[in-house]
Amino acid sequence: MSTVYDPFATAEFAVEILDGETLIGRTEPTRDPSYAAQALRKLSYAYPGSRIAWRSHPRNEWTALDEAGLDRMAYQRTASVVAFLIGEGLAKVNWSLSSTRPNDINGHLVGNEDPREALKAYADLLGGEVTDSPHLNGKVQIKAAGAYHGLSVEVWDLITPEQSADQAEAVSV
After folding, report:
1. Domain that holds residue 129
2. What is the pLDDT of residue 72?
3. Could you give the number of structural domains in the chain?
């Protein structure tokens, strides 16, 4: 697996605890922005003016950051990971990013004769397995899910129950 360029690899996040306009202090810096967001939610009850701050490197100054800024950073990293997924040379996928969960990547297989075999390759890459579940109109959803460079990834396709049985036999042989 190749290394994904992460422009925020050395970034640190903290909550600046504010009482009105006065900075009381900051929480311990963390590299996990979701941890800082969770701390902000907890601290905002007692200190409603508090905010998330970040710095791109431990030697840099702190800068205020809102929730939308956190999401933008997450989407930038997620887009970088999608580029690396495309570069893995596996089956073609129509990739999409969640509008509510910026660290999730979802993909639908495009034009594969043997979707189960294509999903098996993705399952191997993601450290997961291919699963089946019933879907609308008698279809079966087959899906590979797992993690890639720390992000949640799902790749799926819809097939008929007949395809499901035929392909399951072919892959297991």
Report:
1. 74-172
2. 85
3. 2
